[in-house]
Design a protein that fits this description.
This protein has helices at residues 3-10, 14-23, 28-50. The chain contains 3 helices and no strands. Helix 2 (14-23) packs antiparallel against helix 3. The model has no long low-confidence stretch (mean pLDDT 79). It is an all-alpha fold and 55 residues long. The chain has one domain.
Length: 55
C-alpha cells in the first residue's frame, strides 16, 4: 500500500472505515468492535504521550 493511500485511509473517518469493513464481508458487530478498539488504542497513545512521567 502506498503512503498516499494510507494517509487518505486515515483521514477518511470512522463511518467510512466501518463501511469498508462491511464491504469486505465483516459482520456489523465485528466491524464496529474493530473501530472502537482502534479508537481506544489511539486514546491510550495520546494519554501516554501527553501525561508527564510518574515517579
Amino acid at each position: 500500500m502506498q503512503k498516499a493511500d494510507r494517509d487518505s485511509d486515515r483521514s477518511a473517518g470512522i463511518p467510512s472505515e466501518v463501511s469498508a469493513k462491511l464491504k469486505a464481508g465483516k459482520a456489523k458487530k465485528v466491524a464496529i468492535t474493530a473501530v472502537v478498539r482502534r479508537i481506544i488504542v489511539l486514546a491510550n497513545t495520546l494519554l501516554r504521550d501527553w501525561l508527564p512521567e510518574r515517579p
